[in-house]
Structure formats: structure tokens, C-alpha cells
Design goal:
By secondary structure, this protein is an alpha/beta fold. It has a domain of 65 residues. It contains seven helices and 13 strands. Strands 5-4-6-7-9-8-12 form a seven-stranded mixed beta sheet, covered by helices on one side. A six-stranded mixed beta sheet has the order 3-2-1-10-11-13. The two termini are 28 Å apart. This is Metallophosphoesterase. It holds the Pfam family Metallophos.
């Protein structure tokens, strides 16, 4: 039996848009590209809903670089609790402060305070289920390794490749930008889909698709319906936000055709210049 798979890019605390996804695609299996946390207003609600979907078998959750930054602090703090090594404690605090500067401070304010000593159990459980790279085949199955059948590669920032700055390919998949490519992919991969790099509209650069529309500030979230045999159908949900903020994002490659629709209950509509089917 074939199931519909929809890729959801960087949510950054926009639980309202995630609920819009569920209203728009109630029967789809979601593959979430990571960066679900911080910057936006409701990180904890977003994570709670994602974890409920994951537990129900309705979502595959990937790690983004913001989850990786969050992980750095708490992982080293848990090491320190066992070793009492001040080096572990220093690395924990450095990781925590780095995340705070990159957006984690919004989660701290949302919670009314956040420390490594009293780190929310929900966020640790969330980190424990995150995957780095997956492959989706035509039947809607999600694989950890490249299958023999044709597939679409999905990861937060880039395909997993060795890079001078990130010798671990799974780290490269969290951090690389389009200008650092093109990136090699396993035989049988039709194209790859990524968030991480904000773009004014869904964009194709070679065989790599970039679909992070800066939802936390623009209110625009691209939903990518996986199609192994051709380019995917992309629907842009338009909710509360400042769509004009997207004009500052990098422009490169070729704009992809999309259909823009308002989130139920929102007065927002397609932004000027939206590419439609």
C-alpha cells in the first residue's frame, strides 16, 4: 500500500502552521526537516505535537542544526554528571551559550527560565528520536540508507558528503549551504530536499531543492509532496507573519512552481510574485 509523504521544512516554533499542515494533509506521513525549535513563539507546543505524531507513526523527525546546538549543551552536561570532569562542564556551558545566541533564548523566555540542571524532559526525548538523513521511495516508505529502488533524499541542509569543514558526512548534512555544493548522491536518488537556507520561494539548484521560506517570520511554510518520478507538488501555507521579510533571503537557482493557499482561519494569502502552477 502506497502512502502519501509530505516534507515539512523549518517550523521554528510555529505550532499554528504545523496544525495547518495537519488540516491540509490529514492522512499524510510527515517528514520534518528539523529546526522545529526556537526563534518562533511556541517551541514547546511544536515539539509536543511532533512527538505525538511520531508516537502514532505519523511523522519521521530529522535533526536540524538548531537541534544539534541544543543537544551539544545537554549531552555534555549529562557526561559531566557522570564524570564530574570540569572539561565536560565547560563544553556543556559553551554549547548552551552558543544555542542561546543562535535562537535558544526564545525557548528560555517561553519557559520562563531554562537551565541545563533543569532541562525539559520533553526536549531530551525529542532529541533522542531525531534522524539525520532519510530516503523516501515511491511506496512512501522511509529508509535510513539509500535503497536499491529510486528514492528522494531528505535531510536538513545538504546530502551527507565529506567536506573540509565537516569531515563527518552526517554533520555536513546539518550545516552545508547551497554554494558549498554541488553534492554527490547515491545512485537511484532522483533529487534531494532541504531546509536550512532561507529562500524567497521554493528553489531548485541542480538536483537539490531548497524549501525553507522562513516560516517563523514570514508565516509561509512550503509542503513538499514526495514524487520519486518527477518534481514534487509544493503547496505554500500562508499564515500570520510578514511575507515581505522573505525578500531579504538569498536568490539562486530556479524557482519551483507552487500553489499558495491560506491557512484555515487566517486572512493571509499568496505574496506578490508567488510562482503558481
Amino acid at each position: 500500500m502506497t502512502r502519501q509523504v509530505v516534507i515539512v521544512p523549518d517550523l521554528h516554533g510555529r505550532a499554528d502552521l504545523l496544525r495547518g499542515v495537519l488540516a491540509h494533509s490529514p492522512d499524510a506521513h510527515l517528514v520534518c526537516l528539523g529546526d522545529a525549535i526556537d526563534r518562533g513563539p511556541r517551541s514547546m507546543e511544536t515539539v509536543q505535537l511532533l512527538m505525538e505524531l511520531h508516537a502514532a507513526g505519523r511523522a519521521t523527525l530529522l535533526m536540524g542544526n538548531h537541534e544539534r546546538m541544543m543537544e551539544e549543551g545537554i549531552r555534555n552536561y549529562r557526561l559531566y554528571e557522570g564524570t564530574h570532569d570540569l572539561g565536560d562542564y565547560r563544553r556543556a556551558m559553551e554549547g548552551y551559550q552558543s544555542w542561546m545566541r543562535a535562537g535558544g533564548d526564545t525557548v528560555r523566555k517561553e519557559l520562563g527560565g531554562l537551565t541545563l540542571e533543569k532541562f525539559p524532559p520533553l526536549l531530551e526525548k525529542y532529541l533522542a528520536v531525531l534522524r539525520r538523513v532519510v530516503y523516501v521511495t515511491a511506496d512512501g516508505a522511509v529508509h535510513d540508507d539509500a535503497p536499491d529502488a529510486p528514492s528522494v533524499l531528505v535531510s536538513h541542509a545538504a546530502p551527507p558528503v565529506k567536506h573540509p569543514q565537516y569531515p563527518n558526512p552526517l554533520s555536513a548534512a546539518l550545516w552545508l549551504r547551497p554554494f558549498e555544493g554541488p553534492f554527490s548522491m547515491a545512485p537511484g536518488v532522483a533529487y534531494s530536499v532541504h531546509g536550512h537556507t532561507p529562500v524567497p520561494t521554493a528553489t531548485r539548484l541542480g538536483r537539490h531543492l531548497y524549501v525553507d521560506l522562513g516560516a517563523y517570520e514570514t508565516g509561509r511554510l512550503a509542503l513538499v509532496e514526495v514524487n520519486v518520478h518527477g518534481l514534487p507538488q509544493i503547496t505554500v501555507l500562508c499564515g500570520r507573519g510578514r511575507p515581505e521579510a522573505g525578500q531579504k533571503y538569498s536568490r539562486f537557482g530556479e524557482p519551483l512552481p507552487v500553489q499558495a493557499i491560506a491557512v484555515p482561519g487566517s486572512s493571509s494569502g499568496p505574496v506578490s510574485g508567488e510562482v503558481r502552477r
